[in-house]
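Structure request: PIPK domain-containing protein, Paramecium octaurelia.
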Amino acid sequence: MGIVIVAYIDIGCTAISMLACSLICILGIVSPIYRKYPSKIIVWISSLFIILGIFIFVDQALVIIENNHSNAFLELHKLTKFLLGVIIIIISNQFILFLNEVKICIYNPFQATSSSVFLFLLLLQCLLIIVLIIIPLLFWTNIKTYSVLASYINFFSFLICTLFYIAIWIILNKNKTLQSKRLYEFKCDFVKQQGYWLFTMLTINFAFSYYNLDSNEDKDSYILKVALSLEGLFFSIFHLIQPYSYQKLYQVFFRSCQQQSYIEDIESIEYGLNNDIQNKMMPIYEKLLKTQINELVKGLVKAVYATLEKQFDHHMKEFEMKRTYTFKFHLSELDESRISYNENDVIKDSIILVNTYHPNSFTTLLKQNNLTKNILEYTLELQYNQKAFEKAKESMGRSGAFFFYSQNNKLIIKTVEKSEIKDFLDGRINSYFNHVSGNKKSLIAKIYGIFKIKLMAYKTQYIVLMENSFEQMKMLDHEFVVYDLKGSTANRTSKSEDSVQKDNNFKQSPYNPINLPKEVSDQIKLQFKDDCCFLRDIGYMDYSLLLGICTQNAQQSDNDNYRFVVNEAKNMVYSFSIIDYLQRFNQSKKSEQCFKRSVRFKKKQDLSCRSPEPYCTRFLNFIDSFII
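Returned structure:
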């Protein structure tokens, strides 16, 4: 077969692949599900295949031109060959990173829902691209040598992917008996699906690199570029044939021809409505994450409640810093309606290992706030929280923390970073106990427990048990508006549809300023000053005022309760509390401040990230400006 004929075939295949990858990118723009993590990575790889297609298109066009005009574009052809190698290496490297995210999805679902992980992957990709551009600029005369080096990198990537994929299967099967059968089947299906297309494309890259290493490469190797150009097509077909994808594309391009019921079904999936259609058309990774997050949250709540029971029953030393408990249970105890076993199945006990910190002090704090053992049972028992488990979700902020709100709105369970827990326990927790115990009117959202929990086949989770500052607001009949306020203007604007609004939204709202009787407003400001100065003194910053506002007739039940304030004259109800206060001004925050000052923002006083002293001052000045 002639080189020119192969080039024309290659151009045609490339055009089809680019069209298919463009459909994936369209899904990423119009579909909320494809804007989630890990779906974003699918769009990112599609974009790389489009870039690869462009370079293949140019490369093969030069082949056709050079057939009639020998050596006319020799340097340009040399450059396009190099750029092809660069993109292939980037794609191969992306497969390794993608496999890592598959591992995260099956091992730590909370992290798999965080977009910050995806941004970190993009940063790694950008660094790789910079390196691949700098090397040829330094060694342009030895471009052939670089091509051989690129092929070796591709070989190495292929080997790592193979080993990593085997490791994922080992992790999955090692804990097979410590998870429900349904969840295990979901994970197996998910890993198998990724493996089908992953190894198809890696094999093509492997072959392409093998021919690059052949110094006597003949012209028939151009046929491999046809296969290479089809990589994007294989990748796109794999994702487009899933029911959700083609129904969504059908809706986008042929909405007027489509039955209204199909449109409603797709919208039900996108906006999280719970119905039977969701199970039929939702992508498998969405099903996987939803199933295992539900199971993991139930296990964490069960562990916290079982630990609190022990704390109430056991006599503990006054200054005991840590106590470890081990609990065993069968998976059927988590959800008997969902998990079933055959008589021949081997049921292995699942083990929950819990470290609880300062148990005596936290138990005392619970009792001081009238949280008895009976109330905790009603608040955290699984049978009373079935609807709450379905609502457990990731924070809308950058932290990626995961929240569970008890059905009766009394308590919150939140995942936190290990570093935050370590900082809090190292010399600050005693000051915290003294402050919240000695200040009954404190607006700081109270922490009632700190736990390190290892549950079944999941990554160790660090958990805090906190009071729900909106418990009284939730008891009102009317809906209320929620604001997360830091006193900053940089990046402090939320979209209108977001459930939690920010500083710039509040400044433009009809609720600004907040009018209260002078005596009440003065007392609230004094309490804010007391709490913020305490946080400043122990080195904390980046905390927020969680403000709830409701328009409703209500009576102030407790005049000393500054969490829940009623202005009867204006028929307004307000809730004030300080949250997210476990962040120290460490090296990470110092680097963030330096970057934002030099690159993103001109006015340093507008930055959210500040050291404790100026942060406290700005926060209090902001509160003084809108509470009058």
